[in-house]
Amino acid sequence: MSRNSRDIAAFREYLEFTGKLTLDLTLYDMEKRETVILHLPYTHRWHVKYRNRTLARFYKFNEWWISQGRPPLTLLTLTTYQDGAHSREQVGGYTIEESFEVLKTSWDKLRKMLRNRILCRPFDYLWTMEPHLKHETGYPHLHVAIAAELEDWQKEKTKTLWNDYRAGSYEHGAHFEDSCLDAKGDIKNVGFYLFKYLGKGFCIDPEQMSPGELRFNAQLWKHGWRQWGASRGISKAMKLDYQDSDRFRFLEAGVSMTGWETTFREATAEQKQAIRDELEAWVKL
Questions:
Q1: Contact 197/143 with Cβ under 8 angstroms?
Q2: Which DSSP state fits 265?
Q3: How high is the pLDDT of residue 246?
Q4: Strands 140-146, 125-131: parallel, antiparallel or unpaired by DSSP?
Q5: Angle at the Cα of 197 (from 194 to 203), degrees rounded to 5?
Q6: Are 76 and 167 in contact, with CB atoms under 8 Å apart?
Q7: What's the confidence (pLDDT) of residue 80?
Q8: Are 282 and 249 in contact (CB under 8 A)?
Q9: Which of 89, 122, 87 is CA-nearest to residue 102?
Q10: Is the separation of the CB atoms in 251 and 130 below 8 Å?
Q11: pLDDT digits over 203-248, tens only?
């Protein structure tokens, strides 16, 4: 069995195993003064709930875009060499695992150059990673939305740098969309547009994955690669609003399945004592 086949088999086992798990939370209800136990589905990035939360974050991005006056967005796709004849001729070829690493490190370098030498200022951006599916290779590529309008020389510099990093070719490694996405276009919800553009195969149902999608997602799982990210400003804007509540206190967390259960986190003795002290203080009021 090849390494890729072993990785896919292990990924499938992970999905099957976690699909049977339940997350068990034990909390203390300070209002009713009783212990509450919640049983929730075990959620990871391939779960439909994660996809829904991510879509909600992209809607938050839309709110940010509107609040900033609908600035132009330049759409960039970054691709690496793979393991074909041309790639082997240029860089000796990259395995799928090497491609993930090259993509990450080269984007990190390019992002710094955009800030320091090309745009010459801090800039906001949003990116997602997707698999190549034309030949079902599963190799990754990045879609990047840059909150700026790049001039031709800036685009040329970007393409040259990507080639210089030996990440991908000048002709195909760094590809810019022909026009910017801006308020003049018929786009009422840029967040949803980008979710579809940047994440066409995002969080696809594991049961519906093609061979290329399986190869790609097996690498995401094996190495913990992130599938999307953003600049600090956009990350802050995309943060979801959760209602804070002082009503509940954490006691214990565990996972379970039929015939088996385990606890992986428990409140410390000091935390439990703090709950008792707080209850006693309320009684004295």
A1: yes
A2: E
A3: 79
A4: antiparallel
A5: 95
A6: no
A7: 97
A8: no
A9: 87
A10: no
A11: 567 778 889 999 999 999 999 999 999 999 999 999 998 765 678 9
* Strand pairing report for 74-79 and 140-146: antiparallel
Dihedral of the alpha carbons of 203, 204, 205, 211, in degrees to the nearest 10: -120
Instruction: Say how many C-beta atoms besides its own lie within 10 A of residue 178's C-beta.
Output: 5
Q: How many helices (H) and strands (E) does the chain have?
A: 9, 9
Res 132 pLDDT > 70: yes
Do the beta carbons of residue 75 and residue 145 sit within 8 Å?
yes
- Give residue 250's identity as a one-letter amino acid code: F
What's the predicted TM-score (pTM) here? 0.86
Lowest mean pLDDT, pick from 200-209, 250-259, 261-270:
200-209
Beta-carbon contacts of residue 49 (< 8 Å; ≥ 6 apart): 41, 43
Q: What is the pLDDT of residues 5-16, one digit of tens each?
A: 999 999 999 999
Q: Where in the chain is the domain with CATH 3.40.1310?
A: 50-237
Strand partners, 125: 146
What percentage of the chain reaches a pLDDT higher than 70? 89
| Two tokens, residue 176 | 């810019």
The CATH class of the 50-237 domain is alpha beta
What 3-state class would DSSP assign to 181? strand
3-state SS, residue 160: helix
pLDDT at residue 180 in the model:
64
DSSP state of 161: H
